[in-house]
Amino acid sequence: MSQANTLNLYLHPELSLLGFNERVLNMALRAETPLLERLKFLCIFSSNLDEFFEIRVSGLKAKAESSLSAEGIDGLTPHIALERIAKKTHELVDLQYTTLNESLLPALKQHGIDFLARDNWSDPQKKWLKQYFKREILPILTPIRLDPAHPFPITINKGLSIAVDLHDPEKDDSHNIAVVPVPRVLPRFVRMPEHLCDSEYEFVYLSSIIHAHISKLFSHVEVLGCHQFRITRNSDLYVDLEEVEDLARTLEGELPSRLYGEAIRLEVSKNCPKKITKLLKERFQLSDDFVYQVDGPVNLNRLMTLPDIVDRPQIKYNNFTPSIPELLTQQTSIFEAMSQGDILLHHPFQAFAPVVDLLKQAASDPDVLVIKQTLYRTGPDSVVIQHLADAARAGKEVTVIVELMARFDEQNNLATSQKLQASGAHVIYGMVGKKTHAKMLMIVRKEGKKLRRYAHLGTGNYHQGNTRVYTDYGLLTTDKAITEDVHEIFMQLTTQGPNSELNRLSQSPFGISDMLLERIRHEQENALAGIPAKIMFKVNGLSSQVVIDALYEASQAGVEIDLIVRGICCLRPGLKGISDNIRVRSIVGRFLEHGRVFHFANADAEPIVMISSADLMPRNLRNRIEQCTPIEDEKLKTDIINDLNAYIEDNSSAWLMQSDGNYILEGDSTLGKRSHANNTGNKNQQDSIAQLNAQQTLLKKFTEAS
Questions:
Q1: Closest CA to 527 of 567, 480, 560
Q2: What is the pLDDT of residue 703?
Q3: CB atoms inside a 10 Å sphere around CB 442
Q4: CB of 676 closer than 8 Å to CB of 22
Q5: Contact 139, 172 (CB under 8 A)
Q6: Which three-class secondary structure state does DSSP give residue 491?
Q7: What is the H or E stretch that residue 562 is in?
Q8: How far apart are CA 668 and CA 673, in angstroms?
Q9: Pairing state between β 654-657 and 506-508
Q10: How far is CA 646 from CA 105, 587, 637, 652, in A?
Q11: Which one of 346, 437, 456, 599 is the catalytic residue?
C-alpha cells in the first residue's frame, strides 16, 4: 500500500456512527417521508442517541480518564473525539427539537393531531386533567425536598425527573429544591376524551400535567418553577468471565447496575434556571459539553407509540403483505419443499413465516429427532421460543445456544432460557469470552433408514418484529456439505472446542476474516492480470483495519469496489492513489438495512456470493462466533447480485461518502451539500431525474411476484 501518512487513512468509528444518526435525523426532515413516519425517525434518532451515549460515549470517556488513553487508528485521542462529538451532537439535538416544534407539530395539527400546551387548556379540560392527576398520577409520585436529612435521590438511567424550585415564605427568602422522580409505568402523554376536544386527537404531555398540579405535592411553600430533566448513564455491563461460575446468576445480579451507572449526559428543559442546571451538573459531575437544554420533552423516543394510536393511513407508509417463495406455496410440507432445492428468503419483502413454519412442523413431526438453534435476540412472547418449547415437551432433543450477553436483551434472554429449560430443552450460554452472534437453525429428521439435516442460516436474528422492518437474508437448505458444517459449529459451541475444519462455511473468530482477505487478494491478482475484478460488500459496519487495508491495496491494483455500509465506516473512499476505485454509500429509508452480503466477481471462474451474520468490525471477526454461508444456486446468486445492484443504482435514499468522511445525498443535484441533516434535497431539480429507491424497488418486485 502507498506510504501515505496512515493517520489520514481512517475515520473515527464513533464520529462515523454519529454521522449515521445524522442521516436518520435527515429522514425526519425530508418532505417525501410521510408525516407520521417523520415523527418515528425523530424518535429513532432519540433512541439511537441514547445508546450512543450509554455505550460509545461512556467508553470514550472511560478511555479519556484512563492513564492508558491512546490515539485510535484515525489519530484522534479520546479527549479530542469527545470534543468533536459534543459539538456535533449539540447541533443535531438543536435541529431535532426545531424540527419537532416548527415543522412536525404544526403539520400534525393540520391533520387533527394536537399536543396541548397548558395555556391552551379549556376549563372542562382543566377539570378532567385535575381529576386524572388525582386519580392516576398523585398516588404513585414521591416528591423529595432536599435538605441534609433528604439527600438528592438516586435517579435511574433515562428516567424522567422533575426539579422543583421552592420558596418558603415563612423563612424570609429561603429557597429550596425538590426532586420528583416520575415512575416509568406512567404514560409520557395522555389522550384527552374526544368530547372535550376540538380536534379528533388531542394529547397532553405527562410533564405538563405534573407541572400544572405540582402545588398539590408541596404544602406551605410557593412553587417558583418546575423543570424536567433526564440522566443517561453508562450501560455497559462488565462481567469477568474468568471469575464467573454461573453466568446466568451473575448477569441477573449485574443487570440492576445498568440503571445506576456513571452519569454521561444530562438533558434538561430549556427554561431551567441557571442555578438548578448548575446544581444538576455538580450533582452528576458533568461538564457543559454533556448538558443538553431542550425545548420540549426530554425523551422524544416515548412519542414512538403515537403513530399506532392515531388512524391516519394517509400520512403513514403504505401497508404491504410480504410474499412467499413459490416453491413453498406449492407444498404443504416445508421439508418436502426444502428437499427440492435451496430457498432464499429476503425479509421484510418476503415473510419470515417459512422459518416459523419449519420450527412448528418440526415440533410436531414424529420423524424429527433433533433441533438445534442459536438465539441472540428474539423479542418478548416469541413464537419461535414457543415452538422450541413444544418440541422439547414432545420428546425432541432440543438444544438452544442463548447469548445472554446480547446488549439490552439480557433480561429477555434470561427469561427465554428459563422458559426453555422448564420445557426440557438443553440451554447453553455460548462460548466463554465470545458472543455467539451466528444465526443458525438445524433440524435432524429420520427419513427411511437415513438421517437428513435441514438448516436455516441467516443474516438477522430470530426476532419476528425485526423481520418486518429489518432487511435480511435467510437460506433454507439441505445441502450435505453446508449442513455438516452447521453440525460442526454446534458441536464446537456445546463442547467449547476450537474452530472446526469446515467444508463450505466460514466461521469467526478469524475464519471469516481470513477467507475474505484471501478472496480480496484473488480479485487483486485478477486485476493485475488484466482480468475484470469487482467486489461488492453490504454490511452494517466496516472498521476492521486489516480488511480496510486489503481493500485499499485491491483498489490500487484496479479492483472496482462498491461498499454499501449502513453505519460505521472507517474507510475513506476516493483518496488519490489509495482508494480511487472505492465507492461507499449508506442507504437510509423505510427499513433498517441489516443484511450482510459479500460478492466477488471471480471472473476467472464463477461469481462468489455469501451471506453472513458478521459485520466487518474487529469484534465480529475476532471475538464472536459468526458464520458466513456461500450461495451455490445460480439463480439465487443472480437474485442477490441484482439486489445489490439495486442499492448501487439508488439515487433517492443513498448517501455517498466523500473522502473527508462527510456524506452527500445522491439525487441532490447540488452535489456539494454536506449531510448536516438540514439537507432535504432540491425536489424541483430532482423531478427531472428518474428516482430510484432500492427499498421501494425491492418492495415492488416482491409484491408483484406474490
A1: 560
A2: 79
A3: 20
A4: yes
A5: no
A6: helix
A7: strand 560-565
A8: 8
A9: unpaired
A10: 35, 11, 14, 11
A11: 437
Q: Residue 448 region, left (φ>0) first, then alpha (ψ -120 to 50), else beta?
A: left
For 470-518, list the strands marked E by DSSP: 470-477, 506-508
* pLDDT tens digits along 672-694: 344 433 333 334 434 445 678 99
- pLDDT attached to residue 458: 97
The set of cell numbers assigned to 652 is 433517492
Report, in this order, helix, strand and coil percent for the chain, each rounded to 5: 40, 25, 35
The predicted model scores a pTM of 0.91
State the DSSP string of 594-605: --EEEEE--TTS
Identify how many contiguous H helices and E strands the chain contains and give both numbers: 22, 27
State mean pLDDT over 263-280.
Answer: 95
Tell me the sheet residues that pair with 10. 571
The stretches of 217-333 forming alpha helices (DSSP H) are 247-254, 274-284, 306-309, 326-329
In the residue annotation, 522 being an active-site residue is answered as no
Task: Catalogue all structural domains in the chain, each as residue range(s) with its CATH number.
Answer: 33-43+107-315 (3.30.1840.10), 326-504 (3.30.870.10), 507-705 (3.30.870.10)
3-state secondary structure 99-146: HHHHHHHHHHHHCCEEECCHHHCCHHHHHHHHHHHHHHHHHHCCCEEC
Residue 3: per-residue pLDDT: 41
Task: Tell me how far apart the alpha carbons of residues 706 and 351 are, in angstroms, rounded to a whole number.
Answer: 11
pLDDT at 255: 54
Rounded to whole angstroms, what are the CA distances from 348 to 30, 365, 593? 23, 28, 10
Q: What is the pLDDT of residue 673?
A: 40
Q: Which helix (H) or strand (E) holds 20?
A: helix 13-29
Confidence label for 666 from pLDDT (cuts 50, 70 and 90): confident
Cα 548 from Cα 621, distance rounded (Å): 13
Q: Are 315 and 246 in contact (CB under 8 A)?
A: no
Question: Residue range 193-197: average pLDDT?
Answer: 95
Mean pLDDT of 507-532: 97
All three cell numbers of 197, joined, read: 376536544
Average pLDDT over residues 690-703: 86
- DSSP strand pairing (654-657 vs 663-665): antiparallel
Return the H-helix or E-strand segment holding 373: strand 368-375
Cα–Cα separations (whole angstroms), residue 438 to 401, 431, 559? 10, 12, 30
User: Residues 325, 705: contact at Cβ < 8 Å?
Assistant: no
Do 404 and 420 meet the contact criterion of CB atoms below 8 Å apart? no
**Sheet of strand 160-168: strand arrangement:** 144-145, 174-181, 160-168, 222-233, 263-269, 291-294
Q: Which residue has the cell 403515537?
A: 306
| Closest residue by Cα to residue 641 from 532, 562, 553 | 562
DSSP string, 198-241: SSSEEEEEHHHHHHHTGGGG-SSSEEEEEEEEEEEE-------T
Q: In whole numbers, what is the pLDDT of the chain averaged over residues?
A: 90
Three-class DSSP category at 371 = strand
Band of pLDDT at residue 252, cut at 50, 70 and 90:
low
Residue 1 has pLDDT above 70, yes or no: no
Closest of 84, 94, 19 to residue 665, by C-alpha: 19
CA distance 471 to 466: 9
